[in-house]
Design goal:
about 180 residues, mainly alpha, about 85% helix, transmembrane, ABC transmembrane type-1 domain-containing protein
Length: about 180
């Protein structure tokens, strides 16, 4: 409409420039409105994305920490189990060794006691026999009765059961047979 009213070129040019300026202003307004709308939409999304990003990072960190703690706990439990098994094996070995030592010591003690008893019995028997022979010899030698010596030296005495044969055996070496 502005073009129809214009008579000359200059007026046409002013109208064209005004229309161009109005178009530029409208474009700038629309562009600004678009930027404002974009900012209005983008801002909350960026904030949400930042929050979601932070939540994801926290979740990842928590998961990594939990996994590390679980791995450390498992390693500690395995180490404790291995140490307990080693201690149990050592205790069992020590108990077995001590039991074997005690059994061997008891067996050796019994053997020594039996050997000592046997030696003591043999020594007692020998001492009793020697003392018996000495006592009999002393009784015979000390005896002033020649009758007893004569009786002991009688060759027929062996048939008399009332005379102890130990006495007869002890006296006979001293007898002089005619």
């Amino acid at each position: 409409m502005g073009f129809a009213l214009a008579d000359n070129q200059v007026e046409k040019r002013f109208i064209l420039d005004d229309a161009q300026d109005a178009l530029k202003k409208a474009w700038t307004s629309v562009k600004g409105l678009g930027q404002n709308v974009t900012s209005a939409i983008k801002g909350p999304l960026q904030g949400t994305a930042g929050f979601i990003g932070r939540v994801v990072v926290v979740v990842v960190v928590v998961v990594v920490v939990v996994v590390v703690v679980v791995v450390v706990v498992v390693v500690v439990v395995v180490v404790v189990i291995v140490v307990v098994e080693v201690v149990v094996v050592i205790v069992v070995v020590v108990v077995v060794v001590v039991a074997v030592v005690i059994v061997v010591a008891v067996v050796l003690l019994v053997v020594v006691i039996v050997a000592v008893v046997i030696v003591v019995v043999v020594v007692i028997v020998v001492v009793v026999a020697v003392v018996e022979v000495i006592v009999v010899a002393l009784v015979i030698v000390q005896s002033s009765s020649s009758y007893l010596v004569a009786l002991m030296c009688d060759p027929g005495l062996g048939s008399i059961s009332a005379v102890p044969q130990v006495l007869v055996g002890a006296v006979r070496p001293f007898c002089t047979f005619r």
